[in-house]
Amino acid sequence: MSTTRPSLATHIAALALSLAAAGSVLAATASSAQASSGPAHTGRHTAALECRGQGVDPDSRVRYRTQIKIDAPLSTVFRAQTDVEQWPSWQDAVLTSERLDSGPLRAGSSFRWTTPVPATPSTPATTLEITSTVQQLQRDRCVRWTGPADGEGIHIDEGTHVWTFTAVKGGVLVRTEETWTGEQAEADVPTSTEALGAGLEIWLKDLKAAAEARADC
After folding, report:
1. Nearest residue to 104 (alpha-carbon basis) of 69, 139, 60, 68
2. For an engineered disulfide with 130, which of 33, 149, 168, 204 has Cβ 3.0 to 4.6 Å away?
3. Which of 87, 69, 73 is nearest to 32 (CA)?
4. What is the distance between the alpha carbons of residues 39 and 2, in angstroms, rounded to a whole number?
């Protein structure tokens, strides 16, 4: 495993930079989100978000939590987030997304999606493939999924991702928290956390834009 760690760290650093560039500047994106919606929480002592009583991995060293307010109806926001096959239509960082079952998204549903990781001077470009399984879901309230991620030189044993949706004055407060576990992901906790945080900040920004555009139609 030791021979793959440098490749993982380099790939994840590139992914973090790529995601930051996609949102102009990660620091600016994070500052904007914090100013309008409250601070991102990355500390281990913050109470975890939960869906039907279940949260992220409490023992994970790689974790990130953030939130954003969206000016759109609750049902619109929840539908945009849980219609996973449509993610590529509003998220530049998602290349493909396919359901592995049929019917409404529910506990037990699985989907496979991909995101690009750019080349670096020492590693080739690759595509990260994530297979997610919904563990808990409550309509218009929350969703929690878990699953591994794989790409050339990259392996995340388990990602656990929780989303909550709360109607507030003027819109919906969306909170999200994710953890990564595994020897490779935890070999460089700061870099992995940077990549995770960059991706979640961009995801929230894109979800806000997509849901508010639908609400205006």
Report:
1. 139
2. 149
3. 69
4. 35
The reported pTM is 0.83
> Smallest Cα–Cα separation from 59: which of 180, 149, 144?
180
Q: Half-sphere exposure (CA, 13 Å, Cβ side) for 180?
A: 29
CB atoms within 10 A of CB 33: 21
How many residues appear in the chain? 217
For residues 33 and 204, the answer to whether their CB atoms sit within 8 Å is yes
Contact assessment for residue 181 and residue 55, using Cβ atoms and an 8 Å cutoff: no
Whole-angstrom Cα distance, residue 163 to residue 211?
Answer: 15
Query: Which residues partner with 66 through β-bridges?
Result: 176
Enter the tokens of residue 92. Answer: 């530049």
Instruction: Confirm if 51 and 84 have CB atoms less than 8 A apart.
Output: no
- The pLDDT confidence band at residue 12, using thresholds 50, 70 and 90, is low
Element at 116 (helix H, strand E):
strand 110-117
Tokens of 125: 């470009």
- Which positions ≥6 away from 75 have C-beta within 8 Å? 140
Distance CA 108, CA 10 (A): 34
Beta bridge partners of 161: 145, 178
Q: Average pLDDT of 178-203? A: 94
CA distance 60 to 58: 6
What is the C-alpha to C-alpha distance for residues 82 and 73, in angstroms, rounded to an integer?
A: 15
Q: Tell me the per-residue pLDDT of 85-130, one tens digit each, with 9 for 90 and over.
A: 999 999 999 999 999 999 999 999 999 999 998 776 656 788 999 9
